[in-house]
Design goal:
The chain has 233 residues and is an alpha/beta fold. The protein is 37% helix and 26% strand. The chain has 7 helices and 11 strands.
Length: 233
């Protein structure tokens, strides 16, 4: 079965105060988008890559893919007004059986996590990377804690989120007709009665949204590079 990586990279970077699409910002000297693309390039289970970004950012996304030798790039397409519409545009541009939808700002994703999530989706029908929640969770009302939420079975869901492409298209089209707006694709799947398996990810797979996230990402990359160097020795 053919697998496409759909990279959602149409964000404005408002919370980053970047004045540009944040995926073009450098993390450890390399554009955030390049880090993401490299991991999908490295994952043998991914057959091609489609980037979804703003109209004015298409040429820059293409330039980065070329500079960093992303041979799997199939297309760069224009996003929509919402993330949902952007993902749907990416799905339309693919001819794969399976779509691995990933946030371009999760630049610390690894080829190993991508591979395991796709394999789980093939086995269970749908899968999403996630980690168990470690924080104390509280439900609030009017700014005051009302109750504690047991965290034993609570997860932080990340990306990639992997589905059979034809089903995900149907769910997105239905959501558009129903004026339904969700934060991620697993919500669409569950809304339509699908089961989504949670693939064990890692806490380093953060979404880089604020300047403090950038600092954390650079520290993680430095540690990874240092470990790789020592291993090489």
């Amino acid at each position: 079965m053919k697998v496409s990586g759909i990279i959602a990279a149409a964000g404005s970077g408002t919370r980053m105060n970047a004045g540009m699409n944040k995926v073009f910002m450098n993390i450890a000297g390399i554009p955030m988008l390049a880090h993401t693309l490299r991991s999908f390039e490295e994952a043998d289970i991914i057959d091609d890559i489609i980037i979804v970004t703003g109209r004015s950012d298409i040429s820059e996304a293409e330039r980065i893919a070329e500079e960093y030798n992303i041979s799997k790039l199939k297309n760069v397409v224009e996003g929509g007004r919402t993330r949902q519409r952007s993902v749907l545009n990416g799905l339309y541009a693919s001819d794969a059986d399976i779509a691995a939808v990933h946030d371009g700002a999760r630049a610390l994703i690894t080829a190993e996590i991508i591979t395991r999530t796709v394999l789980d989706a093939k086995k269970y029908g749908a899968a999403a990377a996630g980690v168990k929640c470690t924080d104390s969770l509280k439900r609030a009302e009017n700014g005051f804690i009302r109750e504690t939420v047991e965290r034993e079975n609570v997860y932080n869901i990340q990306t990639p989120q992997v589905f059979f492409r034809d089903k995900l298209i149907i769910w997105h089209e239905k959501a558009a007709r129903d004026n339904m707006n969700v934060t991620d694709d697993t919500a669409l799947a569950v809304e339509n009665g699908a089961r989504v398996f949670i693939t064990e990810s890692c806490y380093e797979n953060i979404k880089i949204t604020t300047p403090s996230d950038t600092a954390a990402a650079e520290a993680i990359l430095k540690r990874r590079n240092d470990n790789a160097y020592r291993t090489g020795l």
